[in-house]
């Protein structure tokens, strides 16, 4: 009896702590409910202040209630303008909102030439499902073309796969290696498998890939089958027809994730303002690289080239013709480099568009500038162009979004979070898992749906 009471008390204190945190956030950042009312006006003001911005909202209508928030999308003009200077790899990701209402924060980003995250767009949706993701991708389609040049990287959530297959029929899509190795570690208990999957995924050459993959096969044949079932081209760089460069995970920048993690605690307007202010600062700071930099390359890529330069020492280079070279490394492996076509048989040169050690050894022999072999994406000039446009705040009225009494008649998302403390730990999405045999299905006693229990149920009843 004592034990039960003790546990009960803990639960209540957790619940109280959660509620009081919500109240404190409402006090500090404005109300969760009225924030949705002010959202249309806020977005309109933001578009006026920041030309080229794409802001969209979608509501559902119900005779009894009126308009209810469904989805919103925001891509600032400065991001859309800078996007043309990025490599065409788009990382899409998601996080659950932590405020009063159930919802999901979707995001799209690229990686700039200095290996920093380049935020493209965010979406807020009332639930993470096929329709919501499809809507989000349709918004992206307004400025990211449906082309085979475009590569999406995401975790293996089924709704993301659905959305891309509906909207981006020509684009390529591949899996985040971090999520994949995490799944492998969860479902296959043999030691070292996660490490080997990462190694196989990152390999540039097929024989390098098969060396790691055969080790996986030897350790756990069912894991190898699982990886084949996903489709090798969907996770292994050596098998991928498009170019994902170095972007192997959806976790391209921890800084962006921490911005989103913090923002998702807030009511919707404070969330958007938090992100807008962060982007404003990033754009202002990152373009200054032009004045401070020396040489052609961004700081991060300069480091990579310097490392490759050190590794090129002691290689034996023989000329095939004025542009082609045979390179023997210290392990006596032979590579062929073409400086004109920026190609090496190790594949790293053409996959990263940064000269590999073999290309650098050849360039030294040919008296070709090493920096000239690096793609324009990685130059400080390109970086400055990508961040050229200012992001500005909304200054008309004391508070972004204006007077709450002047808001339109729109109500927050339909689903209110049920009482209880939401879990903070990450839940693997069902779409990430293909191991049907190992997954037991339990129906939720609250809503009867499978895949969760009444403790984690977020469905409004
Ligand atoms: Zn090479
Ligand atoms: Zn449920």
What does this molecule look like?
With 461 residues, the chain is α+β, with helices and mostly antiparallel strands. The chain has a domain at 297-378. Helices cover 40% and strands 15% of the residues. The chain contains 16 helices and twelve strands. Strands 1, 2, 3, 4, 5, 6, 7 and 12 form an eight-stranded mixed β-sheet that branches. α4 crosses α5, α8 crosses α9 (221-230) and α10 packs antiparallel against α11. It is globular and about 80 Å long. The two termini are 32 Å apart. The structure holds zinc ion (2 copies). One zinc ion binds next to loops.
Total of helices: 16
Name the beta content range. 15-25%
Measured distance between first and last alpha carbons: 32 Å
Molecules bound to protein: zinc ion
Rounded radius of gyration (Å): 25 Å
List the quaternary state of the chains: single chain
Regions with pLDDT < 50 over 5+ consecutive residues?
A: 1-18, 424-440
Instruction: Give the beta-strand count.
Output: 12
Largest sheet: 8 strands, mixed
Instruction: Give the topology string: H per helix, E per strand.
Output: HHEEHEEEHEHEHHHHHHHHEEEEHHHE
Helix content: 40-55%
Query: Would you tell me the structural class of the helices and strands?
Result: alpha+beta
Given the C-alpha coordinates, what overall shape results? globular
Mean pLDDT: 84
């Amino acid at each position: 009896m004592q034990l039960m009471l003790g546990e009960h008390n803990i639960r209540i204190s957790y619940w109280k702590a959660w509620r009081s945190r919500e109240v404190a956030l409402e006090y500090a950042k404005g109300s969760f409910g009225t924030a949705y009312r002010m959202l249309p006006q806020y977005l309109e003001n933001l578009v006026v202040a920041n030309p080229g911005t794409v802001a969209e909202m979608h509501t559902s209508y119900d005779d009894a209630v009126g308009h209810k928030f469904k989805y919103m999308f925001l891509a600032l003009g400065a991001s859309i303008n800078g996007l043309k200077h990025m490599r065409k790899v788009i990382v899409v990701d998601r996080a659950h909102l932590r405020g009063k209402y159930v919802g999901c924060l979707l995001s799209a980003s690229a990686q700039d030439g200095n290996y920093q995250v380049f935020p493209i767009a965010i979406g807020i949706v009332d639930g993470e499902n096929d329709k919501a993701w499809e809507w989000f991708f349709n918004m992206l389609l307004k400025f990211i073309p449906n082309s085979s040049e475009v590569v999406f990287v995401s975790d293996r959530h089924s709704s993301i796969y659905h959305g891309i297959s509906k909207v981006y029929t020509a684009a390529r899509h591949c899996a985040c290696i971090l999520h994949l190795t995490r799944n492998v570690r969860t479902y296959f208990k043999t030691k070292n498998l996660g490490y080997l999957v990462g190694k196989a995924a990152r390999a540039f050459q097929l024989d390098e890939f098969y060396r790691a993959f055969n080790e996986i096969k030897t350790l756990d044949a069912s894991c190898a089958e699982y990886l084949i079932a996903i489709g090798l081209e969907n996770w292994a760089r050596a098998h991928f027809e498009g170019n994902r460069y170095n972007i192997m995970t959806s976790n391209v920048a921890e800084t962006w994730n921490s911005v989103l993690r913090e923002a998702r605690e807030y009511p919707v307007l404070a969330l958007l303002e938090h992100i807008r202010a962060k982007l404003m600062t990033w754009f202002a700071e990152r373009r200054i690289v032009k004045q401070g930099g020396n040489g052609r390359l961004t700081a991060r890529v300069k480091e990579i080239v310097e490392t490759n330069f050190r590794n090129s020492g002691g290689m034996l280079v023989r000329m095939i013709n004025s542009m082609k070279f045979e390179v023997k490394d210290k392990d006596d492996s032979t590579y062929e480099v073409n400086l004109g076509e920026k190609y090496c048989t190790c594949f790293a040169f053409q996959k990263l568009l940064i000269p590999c050690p073999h290309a650098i050894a050849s360039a030294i022999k040919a008296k070709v500038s090493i920096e000239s072999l690096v793609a324009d994406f990685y130059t400080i000039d390109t970086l400055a162009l990508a961040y050229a446009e200012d992001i500005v705040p909304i200054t008309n009225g004391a508070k972004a979004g204006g007077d709450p009494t002047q808001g339109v008649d729109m109500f927050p998302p339909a689903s209110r979070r049920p009482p209880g403390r939401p879990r903070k730990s990450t839940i693997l999405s069902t779409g990430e898992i293909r191991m049907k045999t190992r997954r037991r299905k339990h129906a939720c006693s609250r809503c009867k749906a499978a895949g969760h229990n009444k403790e984690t149920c977020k469905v409004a009843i």
